[in-house]
Design a protein that fits this description.
Blueprint lengths: L1 E7 L4 H11 L2 E4 L4 H8 L7 H16 L13 H9 L1 H45 L2 H6 L2 E6 L3 H8 L6 E6 L4 E7 L5 H10 L3 E2 H4 L2 H8 L1 H23 L2 H27 L6 E3 L4 E7 L4 H15 L4 E5 L9 E2 L14 H4 L12 H15 L3 H17 L4 H23 L1 E2 L2 E2 L16 H29 L12 H20 L2 H5 L2 H24 L4 H24 L1 H24 L1 H32 L9 E2 L11
Parallel strand pairs: 10-13
Antiparallel strand pairs: 1-8, 1-9, 2-8, 3-5, 3-6, 4-5, 7-8, 11-12
Helix pairs in contact: 1-12, 1-13, 3-5, 3-12, 4-5, 5-11, 5-12, 15-17, 15-23, 15-24, 16-17, 18-19, 18-23, 19-21, 19-22, 21-22, 23-24
Length: about 650
């Protein structure tokens, strides 16, 4: 990981931020450093870009809904950029005034267009009406109206209740048409009432008297239809013309293209989450970049220098002691199918740059511990198959992570199921009760010895990793203390003393055993570590002795608790094996198959969950607690904030 610093004139800051946001390779950080602190004293430049962008955006969005802003963005020249940088408020206010002027012109054009469209609709109605209304029908019909075709069927049902009435409907559009009613004069009042109920418009509301007379007068009818056709054609041409907008686009196009560029600048500058140090003279950006992405950043800056004709200062540094919260990227696991299992490590914390990333180790240790508790060939195979199915079906989300973990859990359950000689809780099918691992029910003490050895190896392995992390973090004396050699000696000595006591059953004799002195030596080394570090560092004080005593007590209590905590493996392995005995007891009144099915269901639900939880507890506290702090920060590349229209 490299730390970079970019220094630029303020007017080019948005362009650099945009390029960095699009590249998605750097994480920005608060600007810091000795020289930076001196620079801050000259005065930071504070501008309410968020407020300016809000004002600008409100007026700009009104124009954006029209037809004028389908223009390419036009970069501001260097002089205009400097003018904006010197007084952003003045420049924004100037644009706002022009926006209002353009809005007025657009409203005028839209009013004119609406008037033309209104006239066009009226002309079309008159034209289609004259075409539809035949002179003979108008002369002989009882009444005629303009009807909404949506109510046509219901209207017909009412009118056809009188046998002496007949109707004819002529459609002039998809929604409207004329309805002619023929019949005796005595039905007129009733028909008009029906028209009123169904909101049928009187013909005089649609056509004027002249149009109706022309429809009746057949001699001039065709001549007037031709006139209306010409009128509709002319209005159609006017409505389709873009003349007004073309004129506005020609007049204001360059200005609006620059406004589009300025809107993007303000949007970038208004993002308060981006930590940029701004002064009246320069803008400073700092952040982190992966070593293999340095060339990408160099190319970005080179391209910007060619585009702008300006030189930008960029400097790379290795992280120093004054740098904190150095980000680390999410690791890429191989093969890719196990990538979701990274969550098992990240739930405990994010690895810092000063510690090992135990992503593969955590999967192995967790699954190994689970298999010890839940050793069964048949049930393990089911969870392995379930894991393969889930990991293929779900590519993200919690189910993908569970599916990925089910696979190694199932594999280790199968392996230890072979060791316990257990298939779906049925024991002795493979080795006829001569399995190579102790039976949890009949050989509990032997299994405890196995677990003690495993626990010792696991804790010591974690402490070795802890010592490596202490060295990487620059705490060279830390490898001797409670997170290093001191605790290693204590755990080894304690384990040896426990086995000696089990062998001899003589407590006083165990106190004279050499392993007991190894344990005491580890406690003493843990106490001396903070004292040695203080003396060599030149900051020894009486409080350091208290720290040493505290380290001694923590080593004693924590090591003892961690080692004996692994006995829960024996307890849950015993619980799993006991379900086979329970199935045998139930077989008398349930039958062999039903009793086995019931016990397997219990094992694959409640016991599976409890064994998984206990495996997590041993992983996170007893094992990872020895070396993993997880106080790192994820590497989150700066992305350009996308505005949704």
């Amino acid at each position: 990981m490299k730390k970079f610093t970019i220094i630029t004139a303020p007017e080019y800051e948005p362009q650099i931020l945009e390029a960095l946001g699009r590249a998605n390779v750097v994480q920005l950080k608060a600007v810091s450093g000795v020289d930076i602190e001196k620079l801050k004293k000259t005065g930071e430049r504070v501008v309410d870009f968020k407020g300016l962008y809000k004002e600008f955006r409100e007026e700009y969005s009104v124009l954006e809904k029209g037809k004028l802003l389908d223009l390419e963005s036009m970069d501001l020249d260097a002089e205009k950029l400097r003018e904006f940088t010197e007084d952003p408020s003045r420049e924004v206010n100037g644009y706002l005034e022009r926006f209002k002027e353009i809005q007025d012109k657009i409203r005028e054009a839209e009013d004119k267009r609406e008037e033309i469209e209104k006239r066009l609709i009226e002309a079309r109605v008159r034209l289609e009406s004259l075409r539809a209304l035949q002179p003979e029908e108008l002369k002989t019909c009882l009444t005629v109206g303009f009807v909404d075709l949506g109510v046509q069927k219901r209207l017909e049902e009412y009118l056809q209740r009188f046998e002496d009435l007949s109707i004819k409907i002529i459609e002039i559009s998809e929604e409207k048409g004329y309805i002619f009613v023929f019949g005796p004069e005595k039905r007129r009042e009733w028909v008009e009432t029906i028209f009123l109920i169904f909101e049928v418009d009187d013909i005089f509301k649609v056509l004027n008297t002249r149009d109706i007379l022309l429809a009746i007068e057949s001699r001039r009818r065709e001549e007037v239809i031709n006139e209306y056709e010409e009128e509709v054609k002319n209005l159609q041409a006017l409505a389709e013309r873009e003349g007004e907008y073309d004129t506005l686009k020609t007049e204001y196009g360059p200005f609006l293209s620059k406004a589009k560029f300025l809107e993007n600048m303000l949007r970038i500058l208004s993002d308060e989450s981006v930590p940029v140090l701004r002064t009246n003279v320069i803008s400073v950006m700092q952040g982190w970049i992966l070593n293999d992405k340095v060339q990408v950043l160099n190319q970005i800056m080179t391209n910007l220098q060619e585009e702008t004709g300006e030189l930008f200062f960029i400097q790379y540094e290795d992280p120093g002691h004054e740098d904190h919260a150095i980000p680390t990227p999410e690791p890429v696991m191989t093969p890719s199918i196990i990538q979701p299992a990274w969550k098992l490590t990240s739930l405990r914390g994010w690895p810092s740059v000063h510690e090992l990333n135990p992503m593969y180790i955590t999967i192995l240790v967790f699954s190994f511990q689970f298999g010890l508790m839940y050793g069964d060939i048949g049930q393990g195979a089911i969870f392995l198959i379930a894991g393969i199915i889930l990991s293929r079906k779900f590519k993200r989300g919690m189910m993908s992570k569970l599916g990925t973990l089910f696979m190694p859990m199932g594999i280790f359950a199968i392996l230890f199921g072979i060791g316990y000689d257990s298939i779906f809780l049925k024991e002795g099918l493979l080795f006829h009760h001569h399995q190579f691992m102790p039976n949890p029910v009949s050989e509990t003490t032997t299994l405890m010895k196995w677990v003690f050895k495993i626990a010792t190896a696991e804790i010591v392995f974690g402490l070795v990793l802890g010592a490596i992390n202490q060295w990487k973090a620059g705490h060279k004396w830390g490898i001797l203390g409670e997170h290093g050699l001191g605790m290693i000696l204590y755990v080894l000595g304690l384990s040896l003393s426990v086995f000696e006591f089990i062998r001899t059953n003589d407590f006083m004799g165990t106190l004279g055993y050499w392993g007991f002195y190894v344990m005491l030596g580890g406690m003493l080394l843990a106490m001396l570590e903070p004292i040695i570090a203080a003396v060599t560092g030149g900051h020894f004080s009486i409080e350091v002795i208290g720290e040493g005593v505290g380290a001694l007590l923590m080593t004693f209590v924590e090591g003892l608790a961690n080692l004996f905590s692994f006995l829960r493996i024996v307890a849950f392995a015993l619980a799993h094996a006991s379900l086979a005995g329970a199935a045998h007891q139930l077989a008398g009144f349930m039958g062999d198959i039903p009793s086995l099915i019931l016990m397997n269901l219990i094992a694959m639900s409640f016991e599976f969950m409890s064994s998984g939880v206990q495996s997590l507890r041993l992983l996170y506290y007893e094992f990872m607690g020895k070396f993993y702090h997880g106080d790192g920060v994820p590497f989150r590349p700066y992305r350009l904030r996308i505005r949704r229209s």
